[in-house]
DNA sequence: AACCACCCACTTCCATACAAGTCAACACAA
DNA sequence: TTGTGTTGACTTGTATGGAAGTGGGTGGTT
């Protein structure tokens, strides 16, 4: 989960273990571009800020390195990773492939109850789309998760979540101008085609929906080139 | 990478950081079924065994929890996770979806050089198939990675690797009776169809290749039911 | 015999201290 | 002025000690 709400005013729960909580907080701060690429995070500084020792901070760092959000340079420092242009493209590729197969599953057999639930979700999305883009992102996530769950591969979405963070970072940078309404309409079309059991068209609709980020990615890159690495123009970033 | 060779007789490199090395070693021992499901791993014990302190061991544990190989029950102990039947199925689903799209990419345009390289790999696979199944697994991994790389999504394979460990555990349990020759022939057919640029047939060949595990999985489950959780028969494993 | 309260060895989690590497600033010499 | 060597304040990596929680065994009571 993105844990979008109230991240800045986070208080640690003394009952639960500290390090997983720190992990969630820091991940959210990075994805929301609150902690900017290349900025330095020091273990003792964050430890003091959250009133804990270095050890749990360090453990949170390690997990975030695995997610590709941090980079630890031994004896030098820990830095927020730049957004890896190639990683974003590859994550998108994986996501398109998986969700396309999910749609094929769903569209190949009738499922009235599912369609009804999805239409309810879309109604909520329409409400949020014009207002809070933050809430819309949550609903969008829920929508895609529902599809995976209905196809009997809820775990597959868990796998995708770990990949998705790179895409989400781009999303949060282009935030305001995000075409939420367009995306809701695309969702709706996918549901329509599932209902009609038009497998090929439904799959293609989902694929083109997931190619939307290919439009915004170059724009974001042009505005903030310093936030990216492995960009198409400069193959040799060291 | 699986790091298949020399894991048991591993000596830590004092120069490099200890905790990532421990991570590789422990992961390999789990995947190879050297550390059996439900067996208990104690921080101080492993620390003594490798001549280091508890802290790096603990950090290795944490990363392996994220990979779904370990389970830390606070104040109780750390245990090798059972093989999650559902997770294996979902991992397989993801892998099929991604690799199917990779094949579509490759088969849709001529690529003589790639085909030549792949044929060389397959020749090596034939050699290894009759002899060392361990080496065959390495070559198999290389083959699939080559496909991803040729499609321009090398990173996508990195993502899959994190998922694949659950599948690999099954593989290593069914080890001896593994139909290596069959798999090589399936590889060969995929390459043939790529060369002929028969997109649909190539995709379907890859999909059915990746469904092979669906045959062996129930067998392994029947032989070692105590190593599995979330198995289809018993929905309520607690 | 059956049951219950207590204790103690064990676990993970966190705090703290120390070790070792990096790098920038500064003094100093050519 | 320029180049160079050195120092010292940083960084992350590792070791170790204590805190809190868990669970099994023990001994006493009913």
From TrEMBL, chains A, B:
Coiled-coil ranges from the UniProt annotation: none
All copies of domain HTH gntR-type, residue ranges: 16-83
SMART domains, sorted: FCD, HTH_GNTR
GO molecular function, one term: DNA binding
InterPro entries per the UniProt record, alphabetical: GntR_C, TF_FadR/GntR_C, Tscrpt_reg_HTH_GntR, WH-like_DNA-bd_sf, WH_DNA-bd_sf
Keyword Cell membrane applies: no
UniProt KW keywords: DNA-binding, Transcription, Transcription regulation
One Pfam family this sequence matches: FCD
Name by which UniProt lists this protein: DNA-binding GntR family transcriptional regulator
